[in-house]
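Hi support team,

I'm filing this because I wasn't sure whether my run with zinc ion finished correctly. The job status page said complete, but I'd like someone to confirm that the output block is well-formed before I use it downstream. Pasting the exact inputs I used:
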Amino acid sequence: MTSPLSGGCLCGAIRYTVSAPVSQLRACHCTHCQKISGAGASVNAIIPTAGFTLEKGTPKRYDDTADSGRILQRYFCADCGSSLFSRRAVSPEVTVLKVGTLDAPVDMKIVAHIWTRSARPWSHIDPACEQHREAPPPPPPAR
Ligand SMILES: [Zn+2]
Ligand SMILES: [Zn+2]
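And here is everything the job wrote out:
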């Protein structure tokens, strides 16, 4: 996958491109993602912010205190309400992209489910996936 991915909100006011590779997805079943998505979970790709470019529009930001206690900056379209991406206040170099806002379905797979302790009873969780009752362990330190 070399060509950049594109995406945006429902009304088209916000458009973005992603140059970072996106293949492994994570479903978050925390209660805040349920509210923000109106669904059982949000499905996200963790990408470097350097590989994410806003091409059009300025999303509105909501500073959320996540179930983990961390401040999570949630970005969405102020016109149509689409939830687009989020960043932890302490690590703005990482963008958590809501992959349902990507334009084209590409070869991606959910590999992990997090915050499964608050998963809705009607949410399907593939038992073959990695699962965490709360937040996943932090990634290994960068070398
Ligand atoms: Zn919009
Ligand atoms: Zn969540």
